Amino acid sequence: MKQVISAVIISAGIALSGWFIYLGAQRIANRDRAVAVKGLSTRDVQADFVVWPLNFSVQGDDLAALYGSMNKTRDEVKAFLVGKGFVAEDIRMGSSSVEDQWSGYYSRRPDYHYKLSATIVVATKNVELVSKTNGLESELLQRGIILNSNEWSIDYQFNGLNELKPEMIEEATKNARAVAQKFADDADCSLGSIRHANQGVFSVESDNFQPWIKHVRVVTTVDYFLK
Fold it and tell me: pTM to 2 decimals?
């Protein structure tokens, strides 16, 4: 009788061990059953900060008088901008340089010995005002001031990305799950939990025709288990 009981116990142990081995093999097999999908989220937003460089130059033979002329021109341009609605604190003097126009070899020397080039920079959150004012520099021509500026020299920026990130990541993740669910349905299996996720990198690009419009984009990569 004892031998029969021992045999039963041994057989049960072997069967139980086999069952555990089978479950372990199933787990290993299921662990390798996964699908990797991508989720996309995009937003079109307005720039919230802008840097607008305005270049001008003056020419003459007396450097001291030339610097005085530069300061006078700078003050007139600043007054023009303030008159358009810009805050004086957002207007600053940028870089300046002096060129000796007689230092090269010319068949005919330029009329003026020196050329002084300077930049006035407007840095403001009032993006709309920049858009309205750009192109009105021709009003300064009546005073003999020529400003060199164009739409593509203006640096439109977007600084609100951190506020958009949570919402966009959530949307991209939902889109990724929808794709994974469709794949699981087509494969006649169930969608499991997330095995691995990669948030992806946010990109902010200017519109080709309206640089004050920014295209924000993120692509997330998510791996799901399949059951």
Answer: 0.74
Question: How far apart are the C-alpha atoms of 109 and 120, rounded to whole Å?
Answer: 29
Please list, in sequence order, all residues whose beta carbon lies within 8 angstroms of the beta carbon of residue 176, skipping any fewer than 6 positions away.
37, 38, 39, 220, 221, 222
- C-alpha 124/C-alpha 81 separation (Å) is 12
Round to whole Å and give the CA distance between 17 and 12.
Answer: 8
> What per-residue string of b and e applies to 127-149 under the rule 16 or more CB within 10 Å gives b?
bebbbebbeebeebeeeebebeb
The DSSP result for 115-150, as a single string, is EEEEEEEEEES-HHHHHHHTTGGGGGGGGT---B--
Q: 35-89 pLDDT, tens per residue?
A: 889 999 999 999 999 999 999 888 899 988 988 998 999 999 999 999 999 999 9
Amino acid at 151: E
**For residue 7, what are the contacts with CB-CB under 8 A and spacing of at least 6?**
none
